[in-house]
Amino acid sequence: MSELKAIIVDDEQHCIDALQTMLQKKCPGVNVVGWAKSVAEAKGLIDELQPDLVFLDVEMPYQNGFELLKLFEKVHFDVIFTTAYEQYALKAIKFNALDYLLKPFSVKELQDALEKCKEKKNNRGMKETGGVSPMDVFLQNMKTLQQTHKKIALPTINGLVFMPVQNIVRCESTGNYTRIFFTDKKNLMVSRPLKEFEELLSDVDFFRVHNSHLINMQQMQSYIQGEGGFALMSDGTQVEVSRRRKADFLKKAMQF
């Protein structure tokens, strides 16, 4: 495979220097052609040098790494996010199976991320999302986490379905897939495990009531008492609440 042309975007010089040294000494096949300390600098550098890969810091002054990506109509380069913060942004990154490195990271973690990046480049194909890249889905779902009227982008075999979060009644696990049920009685199977929906939606009033069930608390009509009990949802379904999760569920329910 040809050499990867890379750019480092980070507001801290010591982080740029450390990453550049690791790449030069331990990661043959990666050529760092430039670095930038701000979104404005990075945009100009990417336009000029057309890199294959950008190491992108998440937290930077004035504008963060995600705002850089929004400046491109189409992201034609691979991205490995670098961040010191295990916070909400990582939910969207993980959900869309994008690569990230949590600072401080080791040489092995860097090499593993690069290997995944190279594999994806060799096997470039978007069958799952009907020609829509994981980065497109990621950018849409970042908007979901930041907007008042939230929509989630759901990758399907034919493309993307954009659904208002408030229209989701519940999500049910089916192995490595999740079936999502909507207020209009329709449902959709998505090739993401329930855990990833839990991570993405837990901050917008969703609660994991059972190993197999994640519910929208805004769509719950009542609670039926029992060993664990049942949540009666707006679509008429009764969703089992596990005994282990009952106390936390009732505490959450009292907020509505």
From TrEMBL:
Pfam families: LytTR, Response_reg. Gene3D superfamilies: 3.40.50.2300, LytTr DNA-binding domain (2.40.50.1020). Keywords: Phosphoprotein. Residues 5-118 form the Response regulatory domain. GO terms for molecular function: DNA binding; phosphorelay response regulator activity. It comes from the Bacteria. The lineage of its organism: Bacteria, Pseudomonadati, Bacteroidota, Chitinophagia, Chitinophagales. Transmembrane segments: none annotated. The modification 4-aspartylphosphate is found at D57. This is Response regulator transcription factor. InterPro entries: 2C-system_Tx_regulators, CheY-like_superfamily, LytTR_DNA-bd_dom, Sig_transdc_resp-reg_receiver. Residues 152-256 form the HTH LytTR-type domain. SUPFAM superfamilies: CheY-like (SSF52172). PANTHER family: TRANSCRIPTIONAL REGULATORY PROTEIN DCUR-RELATED, TRANSCRIPTIONAL REGULATORY PROTEIN DPIA. The keyword Protease does not apply.
